[in-house]
């Protein structure tokens, strides 16, 4: 468990929760266990999630990515979906101005708005049935295929060093948070648990809090200047 927790804390916590439920059942009326060995075992710290792409990396991608890589990039950035779901998205998943697709990992069906930036990109795509992301052979991309495509670009362009597809999921959450949406609303749009949304939103919340402090300081400074002007007092 310690080894799993060090490398994959989320997986370790899921295993711990499953063991805890099983032990509680075994300690119940069946009396298969005299005590719960998971009692008092803490969850592993999960950090703040995958690192979002930096503003510079997003700007570079906006300017330079082309073809299917660009298509995957804008889908990831503006829908916040996992690549296992991105490769399945297609025209039939459009539902009154948004995407409605049951997620492969969780079974959750979020409703993700098609934002103007993504809509503008989609208008340039060919109209055909099936997934938006296709290889030159016409076959749909697999998650592994998308990773290989991103790996090649990262090797050739140091500007994208360290980026991962899941980072765009973080970017989508942060963007929505900065627009003023609640964690519950973002959860419904992206298909992410509320605790995970809050984890990804910490940066946006900290930044907003810091900017609010700066604004208040500036307002107080201006108020003092106006007050001194009215009273004629000078420091």
What is the CATH third-level topology name of the largest domain?
hpI Integrase, Chain A
| Poorly predicted runs | none
* Structural class designation: mainly alpha
Report the span from N to C terminus: 65 Å
Give a concise summary.
It comes from Mesorhizobium hungaricum. The chain is mostly helical and 235 residues long. It is built from ten helices and two strands.
What would you note in describing this structure?
The chain contains ten helices and two strands. The chain has 235 residues and is mainly α. It has two domains: 1-44; 55-199, hpI Integrase, Chain A (Orthogonal Bundle). It has a two-stranded antiparallel sheet. The model has no long low-confidence stretch (mean pLDDT 84). It comes from Mesorhizobium hungaricum.
Sequence-ordered SSE layout with sheet pairings:
Blueprint: H1 2-7, H2 9-26, H3 55-64, H4 67-79, H5 83-86, E1 98-100, E2 111-113, H6 116-122, H7 143-156, H8 165-178, H9 183-190, H10 194-231
Antiparallel strand pairs: 1-2
